[in-house]
TrEMBL record:
<keyword id="KW-0808">Transferase</keyword>
<keyword id="KW-0418">Kinase</keyword>
<keyword id="KW-0547">Nucleotide-binding</keyword>
<protein>
    <recommendedName>
        <fullName>histidine kinase</fullName>
        <ecNumber>2.7.13.3</ecNumber>
    </recommendedName>
</protein>
<dbReference type="GO" id="GO:0005524">
    <property type="term" value="F:ATP binding"/>
</dbReference>
<dbReference type="GO" id="GO:0000155">
    <property type="term" value="F:phosphorelay sensor kinase activity"/>
</dbReference>
<keyword id="KW-0597">Phosphoprotein</keyword>
<keyword id="KW-0902">Two-component regulatory system</keyword>
<feature type="domain" description="Histidine kinase">
    <location>
        <begin position="20"/>
        <end position="225"/>
    </location>
</feature>
<keyword id="KW-0067">ATP-binding</keyword>
Length: 243
């Protein structure tokens, strides 16, 4: 976009902004959270206890949004280690379940036998959380949230499906744009962040299908020698990649 004649790359702007926001805003937030927790312990606040808990959880929410901005930064360090997608899914299930239970959503995990990949675990968790939150938010009337993993030709596939309302065709081209949202309180960052996480893993994130019966997002990890290692090999080694 052209602002006062200077061409500014959205991603460069975001990445430098998010780095300074992280530093300047996160630290005072951590201090406030610490003092709130201290105050909570110091006295018996009776009915105000819920207010304190709300304040702490709102701080956590703001912090999570800052993390999403940071994930969009294109100069991010990622630390890849040997992981299996299935174990990351299993680790995330209880967390996702607590989100799902509020919306009458039932989780199905259909995990196939897949080889390990070189992954940044934190980032893959974030990607799974973003996609499953969207899936749950799409299912106002409940339904199934399905995780599926399998190998296909040259790829290891992760699918996350819901039985929600589907993505209207007229917005389908925009959903991966940063800040695009159709939700009243949405940030529009979930899919943009998830796609940049996929790209840092040389993977592709796409909508496989979407309609009245629901939506399936697919992440395709390349099945190549530098992204895959056989069990045992490279067990304690980590690859730090500067993107
Ligand atoms: P946010 O969730 O904050 O709106 P996202 O980047 O996560 O931002 O998603 C962008 C938009 O894509 C959503 O507002 C919604 O319109 C659409 N979307 C994403 N996932 C789904 C889904 N599983 N079903 C229907 N629509 C979806
Ligand atoms: Mg979202």
């Amino acid at each position: 976009r052209d602002i006062t004649g200077i061409h500014i790359d959205t991603y460069h702007l975001l990445s430098s902004m998010s780095a300074s926001i992280a530093h300047e805003v996160r630290n005072p937030m951590t201090t406030v959270k610490g003092y709130l927790q201290l105050l909570m312990e110091k006295e018996d606040w009776g009915s105000y206890k819920d207010t304190f808990l709300l304040m702490v959880s709102e701080l956590d929410r703001a912090n999570a949004i800052i993390s999403q901005y940071l994930s969009l930064a294109n100069n991010k360090f990622i630390e890849k280690r040997q992981h299996n997608l299935n174990s990351i899914i299993e680790y995330m299930l209880p967390l996702i379940e607590s989100d799902a239970s509020k919306g009458d959503v039932c989780i199905i995990a259909a995990l196939g036998t897949i080889p390990d990949l070189m992954l940044d675990e934190q980032e893959i968790r974030q990607l799974m959380l973003n996609l499953s939150r969207n899936a749950i938010e799409a299912m106002n009337h409940g339904g199934h949230l399905t995780f599926k993993t399998y190998t296909e030709a040259e790829e290891i596939i992760l699918e996350i499906s819901d039985e929600g309302e589907g993505i209207p065709p007229e917005v389908r081209r925009e959903i991966f744009n940063p800040f695009f949202t159709t939700k009243e309180t949405g940030t529009g960052l979930g899919l943009a962040v998830s796609r940049s996480i996929a790209e840092r893993h040389r993977a592709r994130l796409e909508v496989k299908q979407s309609g009245r019966e629901g939506t399936t997002f697919v992440v395709r990890f390349p099945f190549s020698r530098d992204s895959i290692c056989s069990p045992g090999e490279l067990a304690n080694e980590s690859t730090i990649q500067f993107n």
